[in-house]
Amino acid sequence: MSAYLLRRMLLVIPTLWGILTINFFLVQLAPGGPVEQMLARLHGVEVGATAKVAGPAAEGGTARTGTYRGAQGLDAQLQARIEKLYGLDRPIGERYVDTLIHYARFDLGESLFRGKPVMQLIVERLPVSMSLGVWSTLLIYAISIPLGVAKAVRHGSSFDAATSLVVVMGSAIPVFLFAMLLVVLFAGGSFWQIFPLRGLTSPGWEEMTLWGKVVDYFWHLALPVTAMTIGGFATLTMLTKNCFLEELSKLYTVTARAKGASERGVLLGHVFRNAMLLVIAGFPAAFIGMFFTGSLLVEVIFSLDGLGLLGFEATISRDYPVIFGSLYIFTLLGLLTKILSDLTYTLVDPRIHFGGQQ
After folding, report:
1. The pLDDT value given to residue 94
2. Element spanning 347, H or E
3. Cα separation, 113 vs 111, whole angstroms
4. CA distances to 27, 109, 116, 130, 187 from 125, in Å
5. Model pLDDT for residues 168-186, shown as the tens digit of each residue
6. Is pLDDT at 59 greater than 50 in this prediction?
7. How far is CA 1 from the centre of its chain?
8. Is the separation of the CB atoms in 32 and 47 below 8 Å?
9. Cα separations (Å) of 129 from 200, 227, 254?
10. Of 13, 12, 71, nearest to 45 (Cα)?
């Protein structure tokens, strides 16, 4: 096991390097870079991720054709000063090597437009994404696993049919649509003002008692976590059910029943350990998806400043340090979570060994 863990940890390094390298050159070579963004702002034009700046030529200036098409018609010296300000006046190869050296020291640089270190921005947004990702993932697993087991045991019954209808509805409704429905119904949209719409805490949270802080925290999380749970529990429920159905049909369960084992003993002592392997295998993807990408629309709807929204805003504004820093942290956490998942295999089923052990 130790040799296997060592190999997996060493593989993290080339994997990170490969992902950063591909994304570095793709993002850097894409049109609409930070220089183009700044030039557009100087003209009072708002640009998106794929917008082009079409400003008038600076009075008395000379046209310049270069990497940044939006700079055409602007004073060449102004563009050169902006490029130097963002460090884009150096060759792309030199910037690439410099980025790798800094990232090896976990120095993620400073945001081009926010005036803060990238690591500080990530740490500031981390509590929101952690809250959404952890609680929604735990709630999804807490609902899906018992429900999937119950559906497998009662396969073909009226309970199975009724819950299948709920599961299909949950998988069919987009997360953002359900989130907006919750806002309309329970956050003062058109009906009841029961839950807050913004942030994770209320004003004056620091002066509350410990119990008051806990209640206020979950009060703010109720709607966004519910929206993310509805969007994620359907797949895991059906996966759990199918895994248990497959194991229940195998010969060893028939043998266990023939020997007089109770149904509960068969499920917990024999079936559960084997059926849960596929469910555990999907945990890293589920957690990372809820932690980052899955929460973007929920963060926007409920006005939560999380990592998903930070990465999206950085992509729109071509804030290279934030884009690469977020990608670096996301990838590293994803790789480490995958290793943790492999370790969990051995806890669920001690018969599984890594590293060629028999």
Report:
1. 84
2. helix 320-348
3. 6
4. 23, 17, 13, 9, 23
5. 887 788 888 888 888 888 8
6. no
7. 29
8. yes
9. 11, 14, 45
10. 71
> Please, are residues 296 and 288 in contact by the beta-carbon 8 Å criterion?
no
Using only the alpha carbons of the chain, give its radius of gyration: 26
What does 30-48 look like in DSSP terms, one character per residue? SSS-HHHHHHHHHTT----
Helices (H) and strands (E) in the chain, counts: 15, 0
Distance CA 171, CA 165 (A): 10
Binning pLDDT at 50, 70 and 90, where does residue 25 land? Answer: confident
AA identity, residue 145: I
Query: DSSP letters of 58-106?
Result: PTT-----SS-GGGTTS-HHHHHHHHHHTTTTS-HHHHHHHHHHHHHTT
**Those residues with Cβ within 8 angstroms of residue 76's Cβ, 6 or more apart along the chain or in another chain:** 61, 62, 64
The amino acid at residue 218 is F
Calculate the alpha carbon distances from 251 to 124, 256, 271 in Å: 53, 9, 11
Per the DSSP assignment, residues forming a β-bridge with 98 are none
Structure token digits, residue 257: 């029943």
Cβ atoms of 148 and 239 closer than 8 Å: yes
What lies within 8 Å, CB to CB, of 46 at 6+ separation is 40
**Which amino acid is residue 303, in one-letter code?**
S
Cα 213 to Cα 106: distance, rounded to the nearest angstrom = 33
Q: What residues does 117 pair with on adjacent strands?
A: 110
Total Cβ atoms within 10 A of residue 253: 18
d(CA 227, CA 224): 5
Place 348 in a pLDDT band, splitting at 50, 70 and 90.
low
Q: Which of 14-28, 29-43, 88-102 has the lowest mean pLDDT?
A: 29-43
What is the maximal distance between C-alpha atoms in the chain? 95
Model pLDDT for residues 68-105, shown as the tens digit of each residue: 444 444 556 666 766 666 667 778 888 888 888 888 88
